[in-house]
Amino acid sequence: MTVNKMVKVAHEGAKNKGFHDKKVEMGTLLALIHSEVSEALEAHRSGKMMSEEHVGTLQHFIDDPVDEIETTGGIDWFENNLKETFEMELADIVIRVADLCGLYGIDLESCIIAKMRYNSTRAYKHGKEY
Q1: Is 130 contained in some domain?
Q2: Which of 24, 59, 89, 90 to pair with 47, CA 20 to 30 A apart?
Q3: pLDDT top residue among 51 and 18
Q4: Is residue 128 situated within a structural domain?
């Protein structure tokens, strides 16, 4: 999936689940992204990481049809094994950013490419201590 396709899918998903029924202020959208960053920090601090077994099983969750996941216990498996892991909290950050970009029509893919190209020209540590 391309970045811009992910933006579209994330934004449509958020709209379909009611997250845009009312106008959401930019500050709220950014605070929600920040809340996901905080959740990622807490998951990492608590050692809630995906195991190698979970990484291997994840592809089945991705590939299986949604109705099959719902009827075969896949949702319970996800909630019990992956939902609050560091990796899934990172995914939540990206999903929130993608939703914001979809709402505002931001071409995130081009922005990422341009920013990475610019960063490649910058000094070591971008001239800063850290």
Answers
A1: no
A2: 59
A3: 18
A4: no
- Sequence-distant (6+) residues with CB within 8 A of 39 are 84, 89, 92
Work out the end-to-end distance of the chain between its first and last CA atoms, rounded to an integer number of angstroms.
33
34 and 67 within one domain = no
Q: What single DSSP character describes residue 124?
A: G
Domain that holds residue 69: 49-83
CB burial of 89-122 (b: ≥16 within 10 Å; e: otherwise) equals bbebbbbbbbbbbbbeeeebeeeeeeeeeeeeee
Spatial neighbors of 57 by CB under 8 A, at least 6 apart, are 77
Structure tokens at 22: 């009312």
Q: Could you report the per-residue pLDDT of 60-119, keeping only the tens digit for each?
A: 778 877 777 777 778 888 898 899 999 999 999 999 999 999 999 999 999 999 999 999
- Euclidean distance between CA atoms 125 and 130, whole angstroms: 6
Do residue 2 and residue 35 come from a single domain? yes
